Amino acid sequence: MHDDLKMVKSISERLGAQAVIGVLPISWSDSGIKWKNYRNKESCLISEQELVKKSETVSEFLLIDWKNEGLPNSFDDRIVVDFPDIDVPLIVFGGLSEHEQMQAVLKEKQVAAIAVGNFLNYKEHSVQNFKKSLNSMSLRLADYETKYTLL
């Protein structure tokens, strides 16, 4: 997506933006939110203009806290707090292992969902325990307004 926005736009036009999720391996730094390029192992600042341009071709952004992925209770919520307020729901992943942390992230306006990986494998009944603790949380209602017109 970062290298060939025209290809992503072509896919989005053919299949519909609802079928395309933009994946952004990012991290927070004092200078701003940085995107990790896994091919050349470098990080660069990601601008709001660039995100707005990308947002026209996707239904959601999957934000991966690549620095904290796999580390228990370490998701850096500054990624979500400082992420530009663009009209695209966010799914967050990386370092989310405790239900209190998940509840805090889910209260952020732009966050539509969270993703949890291997942390569900290390405790007995972990899925049931997460469901139970998150089920008791009062969540905001989903907002399904879209900038796209239905045919």
Word description of this protein:
The protein is globular. The model has no long low-confidence stretch (mean pLDDT 83). The chain has helices spanning 5-15, 48-55, 78-81, 99-106, 126-135; strands at 21-29, 32-37, 42-45, 60-65, 90-93, 111-115. The two termini are 26 Å apart. It is of the alpha/beta class and 151 residues long. It has one domain (5-135): Rossmann fold.
Could you give a short description of this structure?
With 151 residues, the protein is an alpha/beta fold. The chain has helices at 5-15, 48-55, 78-81, 99-106, 126-135; strands at 21-29, 32-37, 42-45, 60-65, 90-93, 111-115.
Properties at a glance:
single chain; 151 residues; alpha/beta; Rossmann fold; 6-stranded mixed sheet; 5 helices; globular
What structural category do the secondary elements indicate?
Answer: alpha/beta
* Share in helix: 25-40%
How large is the count of helical segments? 5
The share of residues in extended strands comes to 15-25%
| Poorly predicted tracts of residues | none
Strand order of the largest sheet: 3-2-1-4-5-6
CATH topology-level fold name:
Rossmann fold
The backbone outline, from C-alpha atoms, is globular
* Biggest sheet features: 6 strands, mixed
Number of domains: 1
Q: How many strands appear in the DSSP assignment?
A: 6
